[in-house]
Amino acid sequence: MEIEKGELFGLLGPNGAGKTTLISILSTILSASSGKAFVFGHDVGSEQDAVRKRIGIVFQDPSLDDELTGEENLDFHGRLYGMNRSVRRERVDEVMSLVDLDDRRRDIVKTYSGGMRRRLEIARGLMHMPCVLFLDEPTLGLDPQTRRKIWTYIKELKVTYGMTIILTTHYMDEADRLCSRVAIIDNGEIVALDSPTSLKRELGGDVLQLEIPVGIDVLMNKVQTIDEINRIKSENQTLSLHVADGESFLPTVFKLAQEVDVAVTSVSMRKPNLEDVFIKHTGREIRDESVTEAKERIRLFMRRKSK
Predict the structure, then answer these.
(1) Residue 20 to residues 10, 106, 138, 184: CA-CA distances in angstroms?
(2) In angstroms, rounded to a whole number, what is the distance separating the alpha carbons of residues 243 and 205?
């Protein structure tokens, strides 16, 4: 796998697929068990110092000092990278402005919301002007509105700095909206690698989604005998059918439903998305970590840190 300079590249996969492990190897936190990896021409195994000078990282778990202000967290990071005082001040102003935290820069971090903390962590990763920025699940556990704000900041990073950004996520819409290319990872293997558009185009056709309050299994068994259907998925009261031409296939669907006396309360049609691509390549669905689970994991992490 090769990632181009200035590219916003996504590593997409479920929890445990190997996304964070790969990021940890590329950022020299873990040693690779085999193979070679290079960041801007530097071997992550034998040139760790050179790699670390060129990368920034936003970790999956919280890593800010809650007892410092936002400004102090950034200043401390700049000191670790040997930045002199004037440069640190200039960079703090720049990155605080970029993530819209100027008005909270002197507030203690423990008073920040979850979204504000993630924005501050992104600002910290930018302090030393890295060539490559690793974002490991940057929107994990955030509400939808805050997630979209983080997306805006990530897009601005690419436009403003032109840096290479490697994003890990298991949110399909996140990868689709942000990344120029994605690698779908499952059980430590890259099962697909291309632009989101090209990956979705490979599937072709349409996805018909039928709302069926009662008898979904009966209709599912009936339509499984139809050759025109490429894939079938049943979830709750929704039956999804992947077909070449959704409009022309609709009369057939209603005819089959009538034959088995099953009522279809609504029908929608869409083009394939990245989750459809994932199911095709892995044979199963991505199971997103819920917001509640994510917040609980973060809460336990913070409790261990305070002890």
Answers:
(1) 12, 32, 12, 13
(2) 6
CB 244 within 8 A of CB 208: no
Question: Against a cut of 0.90, is the pTM above it?
Answer: no
What's the CA gap between 148 and 240, in Å, rounded?
A: 27
**Could you count the other beta carbons within 10 Å of the beta carbon of residue 4?**
10
| 3-state SS assignment for residue 152 | helix
38 sits in which H/E element: strand 38-39
pLDDT in tens, the chain (307 residues): 999 999 999 999 887 888 989 999 999 999 999 999 999 999 999 999 999 999 999 988 888 999 999 999 999 999 999 999 999 999 999 999 989 999 999 999 999 999 999 999 999 999 999 999 999 988 888 888 888 888 988 988 888 888 999 999 888 889 999 999 999 998 888 999 999 999 998 888 899 999 999 999 999 999 988 888 988 888 889 999 999 999 999 999 999 999 999 999 999 999 998 888 888 887 666 554 444 455 555 555 556 555 5
**Residue 145: left if φ>0, alpha if ψ -120 to 50, beta else—which one?**
alpha
Mapping DSSP to helix (H, G, I), strand (E, B) and coil, where does residue 8 land?
A: strand
* DSSP symbols for 114-125: HHHHHHHHHHHH
The alpha carbon of 128 is separated from its chain's Cα centroid by a whole number of angstroms, namely: 24
- Using alpha carbons, select from 64, 76, 95 the residue that is nearest to residue 157: 95
